[in-house]
Write a structure and sequence with these properties.
Layout (H helix, E strand, L loop, with lengths): L10 E4 L2 E4 L5 H13 L8 E4 L5 E4 L4 E2 L11 H18 L19 E3 L8 E4 L2 E5 L6 E3 L1 H12 L14 H12 L7 H26 L4 H17 L1
Antiparallel strand pairs: 1-2, 2-4, 3-4, 5-7, 6-9, 7-8
Helix pairs in contact: 2-3, 2-4, 3-5, 5-6
Pfam families: APH
Protein name: Phosphotransferase
Length: 238
């Protein structure tokens, strides 16, 4: 069964596995996924090698993904807290992963405190039995600062994203506080640092999306890039 929702990879479900486009980064990502699981953290799929067509094979994560149409649970305070906790678990489990010889799809960014997901967002989160159970689509992961992933998650979950406006209720800053509480204030970035990282990350994402639109012949993706720049401009204006 072909799966919908992605703008980067071809993805097919086969039974309890997912088969996805592989690349030079796949051995590194699979080694990372195995490392994280060896630390006792199961918030991402398990790697199962390659299939006969050269696609990567991962375990299927059962549950509901927070994509479109947006489910009501995305805006629960529990989701904010749980997503922060889940991201912290991933970050902490990546510490110590051997970086020598690693090949990454995304740029390495300093300070390389952890291995960032680089696409921590509702459409890559899975919920089952009333709670978040994991992240999917981790092939964009690469070393970087914790704040970069926190900012990516907060951008869409807290109400700063143009195409995912939060419903009436807590203001974005209040939602961010819940997310940071879930992450753990001992290592959570400061709110002002999150907003700076969010703005910088959006400009990087806009540039990457324009390049991807050109490389894949998908000009409709340029509207995504324009949205990211509009959101970055609003953040800059405060």
């Amino acid at each position: 069964m072909e799966l919908s929702g992605g703008n980067v990879n071809d993805v097919v479900r086969v039974g309890d596995t997912v088969h996805r486009t592989a690349g030079p980064w796949t051995p590194t990502i699979h080694a990372l996924l195995a490392w994280v699981r060896a630390q006792g953290v199961s918030v991402a799929p398990a790697p199962l090698g390659l299939d006969d067509a050269g696609r990567e094979v991962l375990t299927w994560t059962e549950g509901e993904v927070g994509g479109w149409p947006l489910p009501d649970w995305l805006w629960d305070r529990a989701t904010l807290h749980q997503s922060g906790t889940m991201l912290r678990a991933w970050h902490d489990a990546t510490v110590g992963f051997a970086l020598a010889g690693a090949v990454w799809r995304s740029p390495v960014r300093e300070p390389a405190e952890v291995v960032c997901l680089n696409d921590a967002a509702p459409y890559n989160m899975v919920r089952a039995d009333g709670a978040l159970v994991g992240f999917i689509d981790v092939d964009m992961a690469a070393p970087g600062p914790r704040v970069r992933d926190v900012a990516s998650l907060a951008y869409r979950l807290c109400g700063w994203c143009e195409d995912m406006p939060a419903p009436h209720g807590p203001a974005p800053q209040e939602r961010l506080a819940d997310l940071l509480d879930g992450y753990g204030r001992d290592l959570a970035p400061r709110p002002d640092g999150v907003l700076r990282a969010m703005r910088d990350g959006l400009l990087d994402l806009a540039a990457w999306t324009d390049d991807h639109a050109r490389e894949t012949g998908r000009p409709e993706l340029r509207e995504h890039a324009r949205m990211y720049r509009r959101d970055a401009a609003r953040l800059a204006r405060g």
